[in-house]
Amino acid sequence: MQILVSSELLIRLDAITDGEEYGAAHFRAIDVVQFERAANASVKWSLLLARSWLNNIEILREDYGSLAARPEPRRGSSGAAPGWLASLASKISFHDQHKHGNRPPSPPHFYTIRGRYGQRQVEGLTHFARKLMWPGIDGYERRISEKVQRLAAPSSLLQPPTPTPYKKEPEQDSYFGAWDVTCQRGHHKERARARRRRMAAALHESGWLSKSYVFGLMMPGDAVSHFLMATLLENDSEALSRIGSFANLSSGFVYHDKSFWSTSCIVGRVLAAGKGSAECMGWISTDIIPEGVTEGWISIDVHDVASDLSQLGKKARIWGKKRVERESYILGNGNEESISPADFIIPHENNYTPAPPGVFVELQSLELDTPVAECVHPTPLAEIIVTPIHENHRAPDLLSYPAKINFFVSIEGEKTETVTFSLLYDINFVTAHPCSPSSRVRVLKSPSSPTLQQIDFTGSNTLGAGSRSMYRAGHPLHKYYNYTVIHISELLRRRDAELSDLLTPPGGQAAQNQVLVVDCITNFSSVPQSPVADRSESPGSSPIERKGSFSAAAKMHFESRKRQFGSDMEILIRALCSQKGWNAIISRRKRGCLACAIREAGALGWKLIIRVP
Q1: Are 181 and 250 in contact (CB under 8 A)?
Q2: What distance in Å separates the CA atoms of residue 386 and residue 408, rounded to the nearest whole number?
Q3: d(Cα 522, Cα 568) in Å, to the nearest integer?
Q4: What is the pLDDT of residues 494-534, one digit of tens each?
Q5: pTM, entire model
Q6: Residue 465 CA neighbour count, 13 Å, CB half
Q7: CA 363, CA 569: separation in Å to the nearest integer?
Q8: Nearest residue to 487 (alpha-carbon basis) of 351, 345, 347
Q9: Could you tell me which of 112, 226, 294, 400 has the fewest CB atoms within 10 Å of its CB?
Q10: The CA-based dihedral angle spanning residues 577, 579, 583, 584, taken in that order and rounded to the nearest 10 degrees
């Protein structure tokens, strides 16, 4: 019924706004303002739902002569009742009731509904499975494709849906539907206003989640991630039988000696930094599995970051356009008319005297502690939003496990040790945006800027072997920005310190916009490097490959797609951030320069930058 009413509203609005681009629309500007004020979030989401529905399905008229028997709706059946489409179609006249002149009556007919882009959805699902290195994908691909294509086949609007069979588990009522695990039945009321909802669902072979995906009925946000994984599992009977049918789609599971984690889960965000891990559409696959876990779904116990909770219910920071621009402006707090080259420096993370010691990190194990006393209590969606079918069945309470990761750490000149970090806080990581030098920007050499003195602006190398071309030095940073660099070895020694103490520079006081740069780049060159220059000198790219008319940004994108990132050291620093509750920006040396990462940290209002190879 919601789709029916939403589609009617959308069609009426389209009729009113038709011809707007040609100036022939029949509405006033004040009408738009009034509609925006009157339309709440439910109305706007309903319009998106209707638009997605109408764009991805089609209703076909077919003659009964093409079928062996006319489908008759069952009466008095204990099965599921017909949906709104069947009810609507039952009121449609299937043959002409009145003759118009000598025109013969049309033959009896019925209507079917099918997805417009079934093949596209199937190809997207198989691509998703291959990117995640799904176990046995070569053998299952054909079977999965056949099952999903059958879901996309036309279905009669008159015939009521067949109830989906389910396997009744001992000491548990039957269940079918979706649940919210964000607030856990009021146990975490502070999460009620969270923008990202954590969902759980009951999976069945060729169930409603698969049909929603195949028909393209998906909303913006995390829904596409949930639908993809649910459809993959619902059409792989072996996987579904081995890991269980009740899925916490915001956590993870172990299957076939691999673990799969949603990026909504902190374990997934940390293990994504490992070598050999794969990521696609909000899901991570890795060979790292928790010790003692065979197969099945896993719920992780994690705490919310206090600073993030304080922002719930408030206007998102991105809407404060002037503030974001002010705190990330390339000229800092300077004036365009009085700016000078002496106001800029070329920042880099590896300016040490003496050089820092080498650090070796090896991941030993991922462990799950004893489950917490408070279980995860899924909330039926009917208690949060209006749904066409109110479920009386209660979902099972889920055990929630604290997670920790053990590392073998060896610092040059010190005793080796085993370090353990608990994944306590639900923090976030943001990859710094890639940057490249612009041909439209000219940097002027200034004798008052020590870092600029080391750059050869002419390209003739007249300043000596220690100089670097301006195209290899990265972008300049205004002196308005303040940053403190700490090597990973020093951070491991001071891992019990607070972020405010680490931000304070030696013999000084931390500025309001001070950020901490963690140097995880060990045994590399001691001079700052530009991302594009490093990429052009990498062994994997030959001069022939670099020829052509590609822009610097296009080359950057191509090279970053080819290179495989990841290391145990990056997993370690992410695990440390989770234990301390620090949101962090991940800046890769061959993808972006430090100056751009510092300005991006100002835009986000974060205090930590992790520099990795």
Answers
A1: yes
A2: 51
A3: 13
A4: 999 999 999 987 777 778 889 999 999 865 433 444 454 44
A5: 0.79
A6: 0
A7: 8
A8: 351
A9: 294
A10: 10
